[in-house]
Amino acid sequence: MLQRTSNASVTVGYRTIGKIKDGVVILLGIKRGDSTKDAKLLAQKISRFRMFNDKGNKMNLSLVDISGEALVVSQFTLCADTKRG
Fold it and tell me: Is 77 tagged catalytic?
């Protein structure tokens, strides 16, 4: 899951363990069988998605174009098998 943001943070207890300004929050589920090659391909795709507005207010800029940041949060529940039950 991707979400554009102007700022975001992750806090555990009262301690901030990650924060970003303009960029994306990524909830990422990794499971057995996923490879380093898969991760690199996904990172490349995400960095090139055109999801930020240009001066004409069109979604025409990527994370790379805006020199944005990514906050990646492990979310193993995204890997749940919901075929049964």
Answer: yes
Q: Which of 11, 16, 44, 76 is the catalytic position?
A: 76
The pTM assigned to this predicted structure is: 0.82
At 23-67, the pLDDT tens digits run: 999 999 888 899 999 999 999 999 999 999 999 999 999 999 999
Does residue 76 have an active-site annotation?
A: yes
Q: Check 3, 11, 44, 75 and give the catalytic one.
A: 75
3-state secondary structure the chain: CEEEECCEEEEECCEEEEEECCEEEEEECCCCCCCHHHHHHHHHHHHHCCCEECCCCCEEECCCCCCCEEEEEECHHHHCCCCCC
pLDDT of residue 85: 61
* Active-site entry in 11, 36, 77, 82: 77
